[in-house]
Amino acid sequence: MSDEYIIEMLHITKRFPGIVANDDITLQLKKGEIHALLGENGAGKSTLMSVLFGLYQPEEGEIRKNGQKVQIKNPNDATALHIGMVHQHFKLVEVFSVLDNIILGCESTKHGFVDRVTARRRILSLSNTYGLQIDPDAKIEDITVGMQQRVEILKMLYRNNDILIFDEPTAVLTPQEIKELMSVMKLLAEEGKSILFITHKLNEIMEVADRCSVLCKGRYIGTVNIPETNKEELSRMMVGRDVQFTVEKKPAEPGKVILDVQHLCVESKLHKMLAVNDVNLQVRAGEIVCIAGIDGNGQSEFIQGLTGLEKILPNHNTKILLDGTDITKKSIRDKSIAGLSHVPEDRHKHGLVLDYTLEQNMVLQRYWTQEFQHFTFIKNKAVSDYSQKLIDAFDVRSGQGNKTIARAMSGGNQQKAIVARELSKDHKLLIAVQPTRGLDVGAIEYLHKAIIADRDAGKAVLLVSYELEEVLNLSDRILVMYEGEIVGELDPKTTAPEELGLYMAGAKRQKKNQETA
User: What start-end ranges are recorded for coiled-coil regions in this protein (predicted)?
Assistant: First the structure.
């Protein structure tokens, strides 16, 4: 093979029970290039990269580095070959600090003790060089998903890797952070590092990649040079049809108030200030209200307080009304029964029981009802039939159908399963946080249509998204949150992205008593 390739994955085949995840795939990475890997959810992209990183062993095929065949039996072998990976689902120890997670496995010692002083100095230097600001002493369990992503990237850079695998690195980042990461990736490539970049976001591929390889249902479709292609061609290669990139919807017809939040406050785990400070908002039937803002400004804590995942500060003025019913102190189950559906930000921690089957996860909030239970016994056939109906409707792909363990599914299909469950159960309010995270363009198109159909059916929708394009295209009203407060209410039809960005950055705000259109 040509010596221009630093990594060659030749005729890789990887099988799991009921599915061939990678079917005779050949992928070649040039020295100093950014090579995008594109495909639908479940196409085998993460599996292929996990083979390169040593997490899986292929049944067939070989890996070469600089033309020489290598054996990668585990991640330690990959690290020894200077291969690093930022995982789609973070490999972090939640009770450890940021610093301890970054140095874990490659600790340097001084007089028999871990040299944290030198490690801290180097981590902060990397953090400043690449614009990945973190608090080395914060615990992973207390920081946002976006911050955890930064830790994963710094963990890889700390090990001086020259082959970098980014598996959906922008899925949890804000537009500003994505722009910074794109700059970081270009800088790394200029320094001679070679990057494999898994993403579903075609704009990012067009901006940063040199070449793109496309997979479909575990098979290799082809590789194209980015300057010679466009988004439409890439999407056709990926899903086999033309994809609609703009969101079409009729004007909203708001009805009665479904969600009424009054004076909600939530403490911060990271500092003494309130994460959510006296927030008031309303969402009406038949409208999509989007909370926009840069990650870490209280959106996560607000939704967690609203849904019962986080304690709210006791305050005699605080009220959460759902269709006129006070649900402020109700349990998560009672809120669900009252008509609240929730697509959570962290699908692993709050969305799924990973060791349950897909069908069990589909009825998590309904298994006790008469439809699925008889004299305390689960009606297995009813559960199976119902879950299969959702799997078919939302195109949830897995190796063993509804008997698949949730942990074994791809991230995008895990997300589809959660969305299917929440949209299909009887609800008055849909709360969706980053609902399109990790989804391919075809699935995003379908989900946007499903959310709009939910709105048009008279449901209230509260959306949290860090995707400016999604915020402006999908919402009927935009509420901007900055440092735990609502600082502006905007009309997406008359708001430019630049103006929205000023509110998100705190450079502009509306007075509390100001009337908005």
Answer: none
316 and 391: one domain? no
Query: Strands 485-490, 429-433: parallel, antiparallel or unpaired by DSSP?
Result: unpaired
DSSP state letter for 357: B
C-alpha 500, offset from chain centre:
22
Burial track 263-295 (b if 16+ CB lie within 10 A, e otherwise): ebbbbeebeeebbbbbbebbbbbbbbbbbbbbb
126 neighbors 154 (Cβ within 8 angstroms): yes
Tokens representing 225 are 């040079």
Flag whether 347 is in a domain.
Answer: no
Q: Which two tokens stand for residue 488?
A: 């502006």
Give the gyration radius of the chain's Cα atoms: 23
The confidence score (pLDDT) of residue 447 equals: 87
Phi and psi (nearest 5°) for 488?
-170, 145
DSSP single-letter state for residue 17: T
Q: With contact defined as beta carbons under 8 Å apart, do 1 and 67 qualify?
A: yes
Q: Is the pLDDT of residue 319 over 50?
A: yes
Side-chain half-sphere of 472: how many Cα atoms within 13 Å?
Answer: 14
CA angle 353, 356, 358 (to 5 degrees): 100
Whether residue 152 contacts residue 145, with contact meaning beta carbons closer than 8 Å, is answered with: no
Above 60 in pLDDT, residue 392?
yes
Q: What is the DSSP letter of 483?
A: T
Q: How confident is the model at residue 399 (pLDDT cuts 50, 70, 90)?
A: confident
Residues 91, 75: Cα–Cα separation, whole Å: 12
Instruction: Name the average pLDDT for the chain.
Output: 88
Q: How far apart are CA 78 and CA 72, in angstroms?
A: 6
What is the residue range of 359's domain?
Answer: 352-425
Task: Copy the structure tokens of residue 468.
Answer: 């400016």
What is the 3 state secondary structure string of 84-148?
A: EEECCCCCCCCCCEHHHHHHCCCCCEECCEECHHHHHHHHHHHHHHHCCCCCCCCEHHHCCHHHH
Are 76 and 185 within one domain?
yes
Query: What pLDDT is attached to residue 469?
Result: 80
pLDDT (tens digit per residue) in 446-483: 889 899 999 999 999 999 988 788 888 899 999 999 99
Q: Which of 425, 440, 474 finishes a domain?
A: 425
Residues 38 and 118 in one domain: yes
pLDDT band with cut points at 50, 70 and 90 for residue 271: confident
How many Å apart are CA 481 and CA 503, to the nearest integer? 8
Report the pLDDT value the prediction gives residue 516, as an integer from 0 to 100.
38
Residues forming beta bridges with residue 432, ordered by sequence position: 343, 463
346 occurs within a structural domain: no
Helix crossing, 411-424 with 380-394: angle to 10°? 110
